[in-house]
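Researcher: We are triaging several targets before committing to wet-lab work. For this one, the compound of interest is flavin-adenine dinucleotide. I'm pasting the protein sequence and the ligand SMILES. What I need is the predicted three-dimensional arrangement of the protein with the ligand bound, expressed as structure tokens, so it can go straight into our comparison scripts without reformatting.
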Amino acid sequence: MKTDNIQSQMQDSPYIINQKNELIPLETLSLGNKSMQDQPTQIQQKDQVSQFNDQSQRFYAQKHDQEINHQTVPKNPKKIMSSWKASWHHRFIQYWQSIFNRRIVSFSCFALQIGDVFIFSAIVAFCCFACIEDKQAKSSGNMASILMAATIVFGCRNGLLSYFFGLSLERALIWHQLLAWATLVASLNHWFHSKRLLSGYIIQFPIIAFIFFSIKPVRRYLWELFMKMHWILIIVSIYGCIAHKVSYALFAFGYFIIDVCYRMYTIYMLSDVSKQIKLEKIGNNITKISMSSKNVNYKGGQYFFLMIPKISYLQWHPFSVFSASYEDEVVFYVKSLGDWTRELYKIAGEQGKPTILKGYLDGPYGYHSIGIEGDKYKHFLCISGGIGVTPIISTAKEILKQMEKGRPVNSLHFIWTGRDSAIVESVLKPDELRSLLNQDDSSILKNFYHYSDKGDKKIEDIEKQAQQEQQQLVQLSKGRPEFTKYFESAYNAAKESGESLVAVLTCGPQQLIDTAEINSMKWSKQGIRFDCHQEVFDF
Ligand SMILES: Cc1cc2nc3c(=O)[nH]c(=O)nc-3n(C[C@H](O)[C@H](O)[C@H](O)COP(=O)(O)OP(=O)(O)OC[C@H]3O[C@@H](n4cnc5c(N)ncnc54)[C@H](O)[C@@H]3O)c2cc1C
């Protein structure tokens, strides 16, 4: 059957296309031995299926039965009774996270959480305690010292805060920046109330410089200088703190030095695997980085800092893992954006003929802001844009893999949107997630890729290639996704299975994150709650 015919017919009623490119009306398909009409739950779902059916959509299905299973949400999803249990460590973290990360108010770009109130109260309490001094010079100095100490603690990469409370580095860095401003105000206050000492100026200078470089446009534009300045200013600050006897800040610097030592230890421990890093060009602006995963412990969605001496000894860049922890290789996909990533692409070998060189890894870092480690969430909406797919697919793989051990998952909808044809063609292999599921569980997963025709290739070319490669079970659409449909579908799936929570995992451009956050708020109603974890690849 010709493609034009297929398209015109698809406009009217729900159809799927099999691998021979034949059009199959949904009603005529049988499910095992029973016809669709005998399946009340699935008939109900037909409308839902047709909602997704527009002219540009395609289904690549190997077996009709498989396709139908894939498109329906089981009314009574299988409750898996098995040995899978979240470890005590996960439960402990999850317990704190669930309290700490509970939202109080959500805005599209920021959510105020209980943890924020807790941190704020603790800092205010410390400051009040520090002010119990007769002399104003002393009390204002103590306050500045405590705020400086807190700034340093929140700037550390490894820490008790993240271990006990699941505070992500991204969120800790927001606190780091806010506290730096508070330190500046407190130190100016101290300056007004005390004698002018040279040691005081030595501390004041780096604080002002830090603040200047951290202003977003300056930081963005002068990122490398900002990072290098950090180290110089830290050394000046330590000297100033010793000379000025800023005790609280000195303790915090001690903590920072332990953090740096721990980082060096992890870099050393990973040096065996990172001495053979493979670099391959993917498409015209993506580099695949891969290495053995032996002795590399990480969780899906985490990220590492990477340094390649051939490019620069001083630059450590963060990249989220694309692979999952059970895989033999740690894989990253890097989009060329600025000097370092472009240089990386330049030195990479062609696809299939990688360049092998030495590098260094520091990590892993990053926590999901919602506790997905345990069995709290059984419905997942994984939304990513462009190269933001890396942490999301890694997390999705991890979740689906855990199903083998009995983790109960009722639905996982994976939605990617973007313009890079290389991502659809070479990064997002359609069977990557599906291969983790057995036949019985295949209805849990739905894959939707939205490719923008403003990209470097026409969607038709990508479809053609997909068909040639006999890709299966991915719904490829033109243009931007209509998120309302996906949220509605996840909402219905949660409702049908009697669950009250849906985890939304999202990474990509800010606009995509905002849309996901707004929809999470909108669809959190009538006993169903959408908890949103968001990443924007920016500190
Ligand atoms: C947690 C996290 C995970 C990421 N994962 C991926 C990924 O999987 N794939 C991918 O392609 N990109 C990822 N990025 C983005 C990637 O780190 C930047 O694109 C890259 O560092 C840009 O470096 P550049 O010198 O080429 O560009 P530049 O032009 O120098 O930088 C562009 C922007 O990237 C940011 N940036 C630059 N250097 C750093 C750095 N050392 N640390 C933090 N931010 C920096 C700054 O905001 C800067 O303005 C991630 C970023 C973060 C924060």
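Researcher: Any quick observations?
Model: The longest strand covers residues 411-418.
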